[in-house]
Write a structure and sequence with these properties.
Elements (H helix, E strand, L loop, with lengths): L13 H4 L10 E8 L11 E6 L8 E6 L11 E9 L21 H13 L12 E2 L33 E5 L5 H9 L3 E6 L2 H9 L5 E8 L3 E2 L1 H9 L3 E9 L3 E4 L10 E4 L1 H6 L1 H6 L5 E4 L3 H10 L5 E5 L1 H7 L2 E5 L8 E8 L11 E8 L4 H12 L5 E8 L5 E6 L3 E6 L1 E7 L6 H13 L2 E9 L10
Parallel strand pairs: 6-7, 6-8, 12-13, 12-14
Antiparallel strand pairs: 1-4, 2-3, 3-4, 5-7, 8-9, 8-16, 10-16, 11-14, 11-15, 17-21, 17-22, 18-21, 19-20
Length: about 450
């Protein structure tokens, strides 16, 4: 396998995603004011390491700094940490920092700006910072909007020490989102951490702020969510589980508002498309406006007291934001299900005593016949493929093919994402992947994990 062909997908759009830092020739770089715990042992010289990745071919520089205890709520005591440039490669510590390519997000510049912003907010009420406990079943009391947890942003990502035993699950969206419900279904009574972007949820796990991330990958009506497949390749998290969540849309508005008063309806683009026929039947031939997520649409209506606007979201979002349900179950197709995968820093141990699914991604450079050979490796061993998805190779989108008869042709280079029903502990799967490796230029196992076998019916 030559995994270096893809560069983990991490070099693309690097000018937009990676901070550009250059270390001076002198050894000492800078002094940072970092928040530390009052009972922190200053004699502990255990080092953490951060890698500042550049969009160049030269090896990355490194910065090491003494152990700090850093949390989302910095304590009062401040100590000076001196950053020292090193030429050795980053070490992997038990705290997890310095383990992946995403650690550039925690460079000294980001940490310094984060600490400064946290110190400015230290005296604010901590009620708004509380993380919602999700169980997926019990109804929650109405919570004021200003006391709901705000989604994490990239500037919120900083090294965090190990926490208690409660599992923390990052998801994209705001409280009331379907991703939050999926997190509660997969991990009852978990601490759900809202993030403003899917990539921030990945980074929260990589930086030990969260233990898991929940990621929607496909919908029974809307198909695959291609952006998230790209993120699976770019980051080094492992799929450790899946959950299938029935999507139940509701039309929400402020109390006392009737359908005749509405001038527009807002929601996620897929939610609007999934409810188009029902909205027409309800006589709502009004403006449709797309926003980032369904629960965010409900929050927007409530926060701005919009009496001419309705939102398409879940019943839980209506309860959280104090909205009334004007119409329930407005999705055009009752068989509307979204599949989510659970991501972790480490893979789980595969088993053969329960149904397992394995997800892989591969690339080839020898034409379409190679794809047939790859699929045959599974067919000959009676392994069922449940999904195959092709995505253009973003680092090398075009391949030139010369032919003396027709000249030079341009073809797209593709990556193939495949799910198959077998565990990596199964000898058949091991032999199939060994054969696939012979025909591919790149192969990576995204995860081998238990299948979601929960019975489901449209009435749920």
């Amino acid at each position: 396998m030559s995994e270096q062909h893809l560069n983990d997908g991490g070099d693309e759009n690097c000018d937009e995603q990676r901070p550009k830092h250059k270390l001076s020739d002198q050894k000492r770089v800078t002094d940072l004011q970092l928040a530390t715990s009052p009972n922190n042992n200053t004699n502990n010289n255990t080092n953490y390491h951060l890698s500042i990745m550049h969009c160049v071919s030269s090896p990355p520089s490194s910065i090491s700094f003494n152990r700090i205890t850093h949390s989302l709520r910095p304590p009062k005591q401040i100590t000076t940490i001196q950053c020292v440039a090193t030429t050795n490669p980053p070490l992997t510590s038990s705290g997890g920092i310095g383990k992946s390519r995403a650690d550039w997000q925690s460079s000294c510049a980001i940490l310094a700006s984060k600490v400064e912003s946290q110190q400015q907010n230290t005296d604010k009420s901590t009620d708004a910072d509380q993380i919602t406990v999700v169980n997926g079943h019990t109804s929650l009391d109405l919570v004021p909007i200003n006391k709901l947890p705000k989604p994490l942003t990239i500037s919120d990502l900083s090294p965090s020490p190990s926490h208690g035993s409660t599992l923390r699950v990052a998801y994209q969206g705001v409280p009331g989102a379907y991703s939050e419900a999926a997190a509660g279904k997969a991990y009852p009574n978990c601490d759900a951490i809202p993030c403003d972007q899917f990539e921030v949820a990945f980074q929260a796990v990589e930086l030990w702020i969260a233990d898991r991330a929940v990621l929607p990958v496909e919908n029974s009506l809307g198909g695959s969510i291609h952006r998230n497949y790209d993120l699976l390749l770019r980051h080094r998290l492992h799929i450790v589980g899946e959950v299938q969540l029935p999507v139940h849309h509701c039309l929400l508005a402020l109390p006392g508002v009737r359908k005749e008063y509405l001038n527009r309806v807002i929601s996620h683009p897929q939610a609007l498309a999934q409810c188009e026929l029902t909205l027409t039947k309800l006589g709502l031939n009004i403006t449709r406006e797309a926003v980032d997520d369904t629960a965010g649409a409900a929050e927007f209506v409530a926060a701005n007291n919009l009496r001419d606007t309705a939102a398409i979201a879940s019943a839980r979002a209506a309860e959280l934001y104090g909205l009334e349900i004007l119409a329930d179950g407005i999705q055009d197709d009752s068989s509307n299900v979204t599949r989510f995968v659970m991501l972790a820093r480490e893979p789980i141990i595969p088993r053969v005593d329960i149904p397992f699914k394995t997800s892989i991604v591969f690339a080839h450079e020898q034409g379409t016949s190679v794809l047939f050979k790859v699929l045959s490796a599974f067919a000959f061993r009676n392994i069922s493929l449940t999904k195959i998805e092709s995505r253009p190779h973003r680092n090398r989108p075009i391949r030139l093919v010369g032919d003396e008869n027709v000249g030079t042709a341009k073809h797209f280079e593709y990556l193939f994402y495949v799910d198959f029903d077998a565990s990596m502990a199964d000898v058949r799967a091991q032999n199939a992947l060994a054969e696939v490796q012979e025909f591919t230029s790149f192969l990576r196992v995204l995860g081998s994990y238990p299948m979601d076998m929960t019975p489901w019916s449209p009435s749920q």
